[in-house]
TrEMBL record:
Protein name per UniProt: N-acetyltransferase domain-containing protein
Signal sequence coordinates: none
Domain (N-acetyltransferase): residue spans on this chain: 13-152
PANTHER family: BLL6696 PROTEIN, N-ACETYLTRANSFERASE DOMAIN-CONTAINING PROTEIN
Stored Pfam families: Acetyltransf_3 (PF13302)
One GO molecular-function entry: acyltransferase activity, transferring groups other than amino-acyl groups
UniProt lineage: Bacteria, Pseudomonadati, Pseudomonadota, Gammaproteobacteria, Alteromonadales
Amino acid sequence: MFVEPITLQRDDVRLEPLALEHEAGLQAAAADGELWQLRVTSVPTAEDTRGYIERALQSRAAGQRFAFAVIEASSGKVLGTTSYHDILPEVKRLEIGYTWYAKSVQRSHVNTCCKLLLLSHAFDTLGCNVVGWRTDNFNFASQRAIERLGAKKDGVIRGHALRRDGTIRDTVMYSLHQAEWQEVRAHLEYLLRRTNVG
């Protein structure tokens, strides 16, 4: 496997391989803000959380997606989830997505920390050439968050995927190249230092 099981941690945020034992924690994180009601995300309902994890594990076994539980290290509380997906070992490319966090930690240091961990592992350990992101054309918060990381907008794929409500979405694509990584790393480190001041 190009992406092997690994746990990543810094600044009280731990990413560990998503497992069935995270079911109750993921349910609680999704309930913080009733995130399953957002039409532009794939947050599971309480009833589908186990199936959500099982599908992620099936995708891991197929080498297509590697999902992490996002954990507050000091308390063990599950804050959400994020994944490597659309993993292409032959060109050393993967995407970061399936990301969502409990409402109480949105717009905090958590997303910046997770992205720094995932990007560092992708570029520095796995030797990726490109890391990508994709998001719903109406998920403006996600687009702003991706752009804040320093990723470049590649374009929009029209009529690309079904939303949970049955409508068809356009998908906005972003990417970051290996040559851009050092500058982006410095920027993310700066953002984390600024967040932790005071």
